[in-house]
Amino acid sequence: MRISSISPRAVAQSARIIPKRHLSTSPVLRRAFEDGDYVLLRDKKDASSDGTLIKLRAAKITVTHRGKIQHDDIIGSQKRQIVNSSKGTAYRIHEPTLAEYVRLTPRIVTPIYPSDANLIVSLLDIHVDTCGTPDAGKAPFEILEAGTGHGALTLHLSRAIHAANLPLPQIPHYADTQEPEDAVYLGESLSDLREASLDSWKQSRCAVVHTLDIARKHSKHAEKVVRGFRNGVYARNVDFHVGDVSEWIASQKVLRQSDGPFLSHVFLDLPSADRHIDNVASALHVDGFLAVFNPSITQITECVEKIREEKLPYLLDQVVELGAGTIRQWDVRAVRPRMTVKTSVDVGSEVGSASGTSTDAVEGQVARDNELAGEPASKPEKWAMVCRPKVGEMVIGGGFLALWRRMEQAPKTAS
């Protein structure tokens, strides 16, 4: 039976007759672990260890250096109960947190670690309202993440918008095996009725995370990671795409039959983000954030230069260095260097002052910035970049995050 042959009434009836699957996030329910759940096992005598993350499978055995653990001994148990290995080692059963799940799941690319992902979501300042009934006149809250990678930030973004969407009438169980006579959906077995119900629900979403990666392999792996967390509780808020971000934006405009903006925020985790920020501008709502995450500060300066040279409608909000346990802001801006020919006297005095004791390194840097920002001479010069930490000590961090606000397009003046 094909999807097109299913009537809306049948879909509505199926929502009433299919039993609701309770999620482990409910504060009033203590759900027993089931086949397909992820659990975290920690040595009872060493609660500080990271533990072992396993996906439960009936009749499967996990081998550790402290003995074999039968999955059947865990299935049916509840959180914080004890399971014993074949050598008598006692393990306490935990439901992994989002941070633990992201850190311990198998990876094919380096993830954005939980501390950085939480900070990025916080800086985007995401606020969504609970969607009681779909409002046809109100545009959905849409976020674009370009550079899916491991799916770590995808999960954090989806959690941030989760309250905006209506609950599904039935949470699909994503099985790894194909059931007889069932249609195949993204490599997984789903009945036609469930697929039709899910497609109908997606049309009513009030908030969506579009995540895009250039590599199909990475996108597939990230999709598996997102669906694996707590029975896919956040997977329904996410649409996965493969391709180039500029091409995806162009295709969305054709699909939506509109050239207007449709994205609330955009996050670019790409090696050449500066090549796409002009195309992003036309799709980003006014006052929305453009966030660029790169491992090198020079990649951020390329975006700053691109915006200045092409007069793109962005206003730099802040640049921060993400590190272990803390962040620090960076001063990244373009200035015109003054055309000043240093005489030998100037050079001599510079060397002399350098050989003496340094009174104030900060004042010296400020003076240098003031010199660079001085009035240009009659002959135009290229712009130079001021790029240095504002405050704080050196931190070994995970990268640099730049945030721009989308401005109103400047009105065109009549010639």
From TrEMBL:
The cross-references to PROSITE patterns, in alphabetical order and at most eight, read: SAM_TRM61 (PS51620)
| Family matches, as Pfam families | GCD14, TrmI-like_N
Q: Which UniProt keywords apply?
A: Methyltransferase, S-adenosyl-L-methionine, Transferase, tRNA processing
> From which residue to which does any coiled coil extend?
none
Record carries keyword Nucleotidyltransferase = no
InterPro entries, sorted? SAM-dependent_MTases_sf (IPR029063), TRM61_C (IPR049470), tRNA_MeTrfase_Gcd14 (IPR014816)
Where in this chain does the record put each tRNA (adenine(58)-N(1))-methyltransferase catalytic subunit TRM61 C-terminal domain?
Answer: 218-336
Tell me which domain of life the UniProt entry assigns to the organism this sequence originates from: Eukaryota
What Gene Ontology biological process does one annotation of this record name? Answer: tRNA methylation
Entry EC number(s): 2.1.1.220
Q: Name one GO molecular function term.
A: tRNA (adenine(58)-N1)-methyltransferase activity
GO cellular component, alphabetical, reads:
mitochondrion; tRNA (m1A) methyltransferase complex
* Protein name in the entry: tRNA (adenine(58)-N(1))-methyltransferase catalytic subunit TRM61
User: From what organism does this protein derive?
Assistant: Lophiotrema nucula
